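Team,

Forwarding the record for the chain on the shared tracking sheet. I've put the sequence and predicted structure together so nobody has to dig through attachments.
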Amino acid sequence: MSTSARAAVAVEALRTELQDFSLPEIGADDGLLQVEVAGVCGTDWEIYRRESRGRGLGPLILGHENIGRIVALGERAAERWGASVGDRVAVEEFLPCGHCRFCLSGRGWLCDKTDSRGAGPFLRYGSTPTTIPPALWGGFGEYLYLHPNSLIHRLSDDLPGEQAALFVPLSNGIRWVAEVGKGGPGGSILVQGPGQHGLGCVVAAKAAGMETVIVSGLSHSPYRLEVARALGADLTIEADREDVAARVRDATGGRGADIVVDLAPGATETVEIAVDAAAKTGVVILAGSKHGRAVEGFSNDATVRKELTVRGVRGRDYASVERALDLIASRRFPLELMCTHTFGLSETDKALRLVGERWDRAAIHVNVVPAP
C-alpha cells in the first residue's frame, strides 16, 4: 500500500488543488478506507462557494457520500464495526459523539460535535479542514481516514459503486417520507424539486406503497422529470408553466397532498406552494436549503385552518441507510438513470461546477472516482 494519498483540496472559494498527504498510522480504534467513488451533493457546492456555508473553514477535502474498501483497521475498531480489512463499505458523513442527548436518542445527525453549521468545534466528513490531523476528511481523495466514531455500512461486491453512492439521497428520502411524513399505502405526496434528493423521495414513496406520487420541476430540466416518471411518479408538473397546487388538487380529488416535500434549492416561493398544495392535516416537510433567504408570504392562516404539520428535516438515521442499501441491492428501481456523470480526481472542480452551475441540465447524481 502507498504511504501517501492524493486528494482534491478546496483551497478557497471555487478553486481546487491536487495535494499529497501522508497516510496516518492506524491504531486500535480507527481505520483507513481506499475510496472507490464519492457522490457530489449540493452541500458540497454550497461549501465550495464559501458564501452561505464554508466560510472560515480553510482548506478542506469535500465529499461525504463515500464508498470504498477498508485497507487498514484497528482491533477494537474491527470488533465495534463488525468489519474486516478488505470489506467494502459505505461511510456516512456524521461523526457523532455517542453520548449527548441526541446520540442517546438515536438522532446522531443532530449531535453538536458533528454539526458543521454549529458554533463549536466539529468533525464531519466533507466539512473538516485539512489542518485537523490526519487531513483525510473527505471523499474527493484516494483515501479516507476512518475515525473511531465513524458510521459504516457493509456492502456486497456486486453492487455498482455509482449506485451505491446513492445511499445518502435514498436514505434521506426514506426517513423524510416514511418516518417523518408517515407515508404509506393509499397516501399522496408532492415532491418539489426532482434533484437527487427529490428523486430519493420518489423512490421512498413508491417503496412505501403510496398511491399518488406527484413531482414538480422546471421545464428546462425535462430529463429530471422523465426520470421521476421512470422511478414511478404518477404525475409530473412543470412548475414554471403550470399552477402546481391546482394540478395537485385535480390529481387528488380536490383534497391536496398528504405529504409535501420542498426540496427546491434557493427558491422561497415553493414553501407557500407547499402549504397551498397540502391536504388538511397534511405534513409539509422543508428539506431544501434557501441559502439564508427569508421565506416571504408564508400563509399562517392556511396552516392553522388545515391543521398542517410543518417540519424541517436534515439527515437520516442508521436504519434508513440500511434500508436504502437493501433497496439499491434489490434493483427494484432503475437507479442507473440517476447516475448521470462520473469524473476523475483531477476533474473535481468540473464535477462540483456541474452540480452547482448546472451546465448540463440532465445532470442528477454526479460522482468522483479518485482511482486513476
